[in-house]
Amino acid sequence: MLNRPFLLMLPALIALGIGFILPMGSVVWTSLHQGGLFSMGAWGEVLSSRTFLGILGRTFSMAAVVTLLTLALAYPLAYWAATTARRWGAQIMALVAVPYLTSILIRSYAWVAILGGNGLVNRALESLGLIEEPLPLVFNRFGSYVGMVHILLPMAVFPIFAAMQRIDPALMRAGASLGAPPGSSFSTIFLPLSWPGVSAGAALVFLAAMGFYITPALLGAPGDYLVAQAIEVRVSTLAEFDTAAAQACLLLALVTALMLLLRKRIVAMAGEDTTAAPARRLPLPPLLRRLGAAVAGLLAPIATPLLWGYGLLLMTLLLAPMIVVVLIAFSSAPYLSFPPPGWSLRWFFSFFADEAWLRATGFSLVVSLAGAATALAIGTPFALALSRGRFQGRRLLWLLAVAPMILPHIALALGLFFTAVRLGLNGSIASFWIAYTVTGLPYVVIILVAALRRFDTDLERAAASLGAAPLRRFRDVTLPLLAASFASAFLFAFLAGFDDLIISLFLSSPNGTTIAMRMWEDIRLEISPKTAVVGVLQLGLLLLAALIARLRLWSAPWRTR
Amino acid sequence: MSSIISRRGLLAATALATLARPALAQNSLKGTGSVIVHDGGGTMGVAQRRAFSEPFEKETGIRVIHQAGVNSGVQRAAILAGAPKHDVANISGGSMAAFEKDALLQPIDYNFWAEADRRAFDIVPAGQFQSPAMLYSMLLAFDQKRYGDRAPQSWAQLWDARAFPGRRTLAAGANAADGCSFEIALLADGVAPDKLYPIDWERAFRSLARIRGDVVKWWANGAESVQLQIDRQASLGSAWNGRIDGANDNGGSIGKVWNQGILQWAGWAIPKGAANAENAQKYIAYMSRAEPQARYSELITYGPTNSRAFDHISAERAALLPTAPAVKGLQIVQDYDFWNATDSTGQTGLRRAITEWEKWVSAG
Predict the structure, then answer these.
(1) Sign of the CA dihedral A484, A486, A488, A491?
(2) To probe the interface with B, which of A103, A105, A332, A526 has the most B CB atoms within 10 Å?
(3) ipTM for the predicted complex
(4) Contact predicate B77/A418, CB 8 Å
(5) Cα A77 off chain centre by
(6) Cα–chain-centroid distance for residue A549?
(7) How far apart are CA B302 and CA B53, in angstroms?
(8) Whose CA is closest to A439, among A476, A413, A420?
């Protein structure tokens, strides 16, 4: 089957054709028409606006800073979870996903409650007598970075953890027994082997950060005005679709060009590297590598307590807003206030008594689970073909599958809506299904291509030589070894759908209204603790899933080793 | 206070007289099938259901389907694609003119209305393509505990950080007309209410620059405007009257100043291509009546657009509404014509506000 990669990729290509290429065509068409006539006016305006180009530049630089910060924080955390704290790896990963489980508005509110002038941190420092005036921790660039890094950290930690988890500890022991100092075996063995995870994480974080605007709008300085906000305001407030479409196309083109420029560092495809000499393949300048080795060597003797200290501290910071959200969900106050003046279950009752919210929750669960399952089902063979096949244009295909994440969702939503109406799918559940398949696909492809790249194909060949059929081989050998990657790909694909507001605003109908829309309409005017309840219920589901995973999937590969 | 009572008495008498007269030959609202209407969510959605939808269903036999609201961009895209999101859409006053100009709406059929009701739309008249739905006001909001004994009275005082120390919050300029920050900046700079329009952008931004250092956060949405004050991140700012009342109903202590408030409105309209246009006409006609509007304003502090509704609203409640006789003269009705007109640069006010704001914040 691998000899015919086209067949493996066909289902994903069909989905991309309907869910991305047609909508994208509609976006391009929109950018080139004014009042129904062909016009380059929107493009001319966008390209000549110094303000817009400045916003674009700021978006790139902030996304780059956020990516570097996120990777720097994520790598040691993943290392801790994959090595020192290996026994707790699955639980740590489940907790790392927690920041995702709540609506962006209430999560931002939680950060204000923690960092604000009247927030927990400042009050604590004041009561300790350390400061007189509150520190400006939020509503500035620092606040933007805190909010963005917090929510993007899981996207970096998951693929890095998955890569590290498959590194055989025997390799490190072998290195040590051959006399390599700890720093050196880290930088020549561990770091290169974990690199695919780092590059996948970097790609995910950077691309997601390029599309951010609500978090910087709520936590940042007024100047933290990013390109997705410029596009959003042109669609939502001005209904100026041509300019918005031109802006979105320009952004897509620039990011695509950047990805092609950095291609070798971001997605190394099979055939471009050999596992035999990983150290030489590490795309880091030698100076940085030596520095890494030196630091690792220096820290080796105290590595264990240091890693535990770091890991626990970072987990606390990661979970702090969710703790605030959980407390708010049990608040007796009719409004958001922190700390809550009293405790009650009224918001849980209010949620379960509200038929519209329950129906919307059910609808969101169905369409985002269907989308994530489909994305995984068609994305896995697609990733397999890309990482194992030997044919031209693989990187472009990779970019095509990832593009739905790069194109700002407001533009994708506009295109999807026009396409759905033309195909007679308006108001149908199928339109959501296609949309969430396509928005989930980038996560599946980025994570699985990275995971499969370092996958030891000898194991599969061994199974084949013992007579295992391809499907059986996949089920018994590949699947269990890549369980963590599959789990995180599915989780992100699911959340991409479940968290989506913008696409659902366009596709909504009386047959289909998502919970994100219900929360949004509630939140526009006043934030009630009811939205916190949704986060708590999601948290409960995640912990349940982690428990099941602990019992089944995650523990399996370790036992076999 | 006494003037209000006497006025109420007078109005009540008029109402009785109206009742005594035989009903005019007005088309019946009875019908079949259903109608999909905009739902504002939260308290607003509940109020709409109780005040309008449920009694409408009982009277007419038409089933009302509440569908979550969308912003004007989404609604516009939906109408252009021939698949509007609602039969009865709710469009903000600032966006309405663009919908009318591009012929995206169906005319309102006033044969379903009582003539007296139409005449009573006296603050914002009912137009060819839209029926004003609700009035609300952007007010100066302040921490009552902090400034209780010496409350600020005007936007100029909000700009006076020496007399009224404390952190401020105003709407981010990307909210354009909805946020009112440009009108507020000019009023604070001493522009007379009748000289507000056309907005002098340079002067408005100069004024905003003076307050910039005291603004802890330019709020992004209505929830945030009040939340910042509840959490005491800000002590002064702009906020919608309904949001302030909502916070105070729940134990907040935010003061509000009617003086120089900016009165805004949203309207009901029937998009081109709406599947149940006839039922939509009937639903809008029902909502134009005084009693349902009074019920609505009892549930949420939006001002009725039909002034006859005040005949059915208690004096206590009326005092909270932006269109109450005692306060409506203190406020300035936002000029949506200006916001939609094209200026010498070829841009509408809305677009100009957003591009100038983007330039301003980018310059740091």
Answers:
(1) negative
(2) A526
(3) 0.88
(4) yes
(5) 17
(6) 20
(7) 17
(8) A413
Q: Does B45 touch chain A (CB under 8 A)?
A: yes
Across the interface, whether the CB atoms of B354 and A417 are under 8 A apart is answered: no
Q: Which residue has the higher pLDDT, A118 or B78?
A: B78
**pLDDT bucket at B251, cuts 50 / 70 / 90:** confident
Q: Are B361 and B215 in contact (CB under 8 A)?
A: no
Q: Tabulate helix, strand, coil % of chain A (nearest 5).
A: 75, 0, 20
> B163 phi and psi, to 5 degrees?
-75, -35
Query: Among A58, A230, A506, whose Cβ lies nearest the Cβ of B77?
Result: A506
Residue of A nearest to B74 (CA): A506
CB A170 within 8 Å of CB A200? no
CB pairs under 8 A between A and B: 162
Q: What span, in angstroms and rounded, lies between the C-alpha atoms of A216 and A145?
A: 8
Is A58 in Cβ contact with B246 (below 8 Å)?
no
Determine which helix (DSSP H) or strand (DSSP E) holds B170, and give its type and residue range.
strand B168-171
Backbone dihedral angles phi then psi of residue B137, each to the nearest 5 degrees: -135, 140
Could you give the angle at which helices A104-115 and A530-551 cross, rounded to 10 degrees?
Answer: 100
HSE (side-chain half, CA atoms, 13 Å) at A69? 17
Contact A335 B351 (CB under 8 A): no
Are the CB atoms for A225 and A21 separated by under 8 Å?
no
Q: No. of H helices and E strands in chain A?
A: 31, 2
Q: Rounded to whole angstroms, how far apart are CA atoms A43 and A59?
A: 19
B243 chain-A contacts, CB cut-off 8 A:
525-526
* CA angle (B198, B200, B203) in 5-degree steps: 160
B 163-182 → A contacts, CB under 8 A? 167, 172, 174-176, 178
How does DSSP assign A118-144, residue by residue?
Answer: TSHHHHHHHHTTS-SSPP--SSSHHHH
Short-list B36, B40, B99, CA closest to B69: B40
Read off φ and ψ for residue B219, nearest 5 degrees: -70, 145
Task: Quick: pLDDT tens for B300-321.
Answer: 988 999 999 999 999 999 989 9
pTM beyond cutoff 0.90:
no
CB within 8 Å: B67 and A517: no
E strand or H helix at B248 = helix B241-249
Would you state the pLDDT for residue B22? 42
Round to whole Å and give the CA distance between B182 and B176. 8
Q: CA-to-CA distance for A160 and A198, rounded, in angstroms?
A: 5
**Would you say A269 and A386 are in contact if contact means Cβ atoms under 8 Å apart?**
yes
User: In angstroms, rounded to a whole number, what is the distance separating the alpha carbons of residues B37 and A30?
Assistant: 29
Of the candidates B57, B359, B41, the one whose C-alpha atom is nearest the C-alpha of residue A54 is B359
Which residues in chain B are closer than 8 Å to A527, comparing Cβ atoms?
Answer: 223, 227
- Asked if residues A412 and A21 have their Cβ atoms less than 8 Å apart, the reply is no
Cis status of the peptide bond prior to B198, with omega within 30 of 0: yes
Residue A409: which of A492, A501, A498 has the closest Cα? A501
Is the bond leading into A286 cis (omega within 30 degrees of zero)? Answer: no
Q: What does the DSSP assignment read for A388-403?
A: H---TTHHHHHHHHHH
Contact B313, B67 (CB under 8 A): no
3-state secondary structure of A89: helix
By C-alpha distance, which of A332, A328, A322, A196 is closest to A268? A196
Identify the residue among A135, A226, A521 best suited for mutation to test binding to B, counting B beta carbons within 10 A and taking the highest: A521
DSSP 3-state assignment of A102?
Answer: coil
Kindly state whether B78 is in contact with chain A, defined as any CB-CB distance less than 8 angstroms.
yes
The alpha carbon of residue B311 is apart from the nearest alpha carbon of chain A, in Å, by: 28
Give the model's confidence band at A366: pLDDT under 50 very low, under 70 low, under 90 confident, else very high.
Answer: very high
pLDDT digits (tens, 9 = 90+) for B36-46: 999 987 788 88
